[in-house]
Fold each of these.
Amino acid sequence: MKVAEARKLIGQKVSVQKHYSGIIEHGIILSVQGQNVEVDFYGMRDWLWLPDCTIKPTSEGDFNG
């Protein structure tokens, strides 16, 4: 995902797959600074580097949070 695409998803629910672990988590994008994305995972905030993860928009039916 490119930075511009991530910025459009600020405030929206997304699924995030971290390449180094393969785990898929659901959260909300809070901010984007450069290639760094701040995501809220159920109250725990984490900064992710865009090249190290795959972020996809999630529909309401796919998100349980």
Amino acid sequence: MKIILNNDDGYNFDIEITDEEKNSKDSVYEPCFLVATLLGEIQSKVLGFKSLEKQKKSAFFMLDVVKDVLTEYYNDMEKIMNEDREAEKVYGYMEKFYEGFLERNGWSNSNVFEMLDNKATDLATILDGEEIRFSIVDKKNDEEIIVLNKAMVSKIDKDTEDPIYEAVDANAVATIIYDKMFGDDEENNPARVKGGLWFNEQAKRIVDEL
């Protein structure tokens, strides 16, 4: 955080809070620490003025600064909370895709984890004749372990930006499976590494190359 006097009157302050400070868990960018830091740093400047009038103007301006910074803080927090709520809603849809996947195959969670247990796996988009399969494969031998979903090449529209439903479904299912196995640690989670529309992008690339 930087607090800068910016005019000759000595009571007009610039407050600069970096993104790093905003995002840090130990940051002063928390309400109580923020107010204490602002009051402490600005008060030290205010008390340096010999003129009582300058001290008064500075003190009242200081309160306005604190109010503005807190307003920005709570606006940011509201935005983050809204984004979190939206993310939770999207994740709920993904879990519905996963439940549908289990139901289609007559499986439970334990069936899926037994098939993947002790295997190094990855995601693959496989062209097989007129069919594109979205699968989890064994990295050692490229063998398909689980087919998450599939689509017919003839039904994929090359001229639209709309996502392929089956590919979106497969990405959601893969994400839930790997989240249950590894959490959302991107380094060990193939679905997180590749991204939420990876199957869709791969399928469209395959169709474009045919």
Amino acid sequence: MKTLQIIEMLEWQDEDIEWIIQKKDTKQGRTLAQNRTWYKLFSAISKHLWYSVQEVKMYMLSWCFWTKILKMSKEKMEIPVISQTSDLTKEQWIFFIDTILAFVKIKNVPVEITSREINSLYDSYK
């Protein structure tokens, strides 16, 4: 909805109501092609290291963005500070991309990612 449309709509509302309007930048969503590239990277690391895709993702999030101790009853568990990629900011996404690509290179993970696919990952978050 455009700003003028919102203002017009609010003008017709009860005058006893106070309205607070806040404009907020939203995150850009990933395309299906970008999701396929992410899956290709995580899947290649998964096969290379013999861990599930979800375990690789949790490991990478923990490695990039630290962990915290969760204490429930008498048990303590170390969990990622950020547990879902959807919670990442644009700056964190760029760092995450850099880290995963460096990891793939250092560990010699066999995966064919074109420069176009890599650029697409960066383009959506810059």
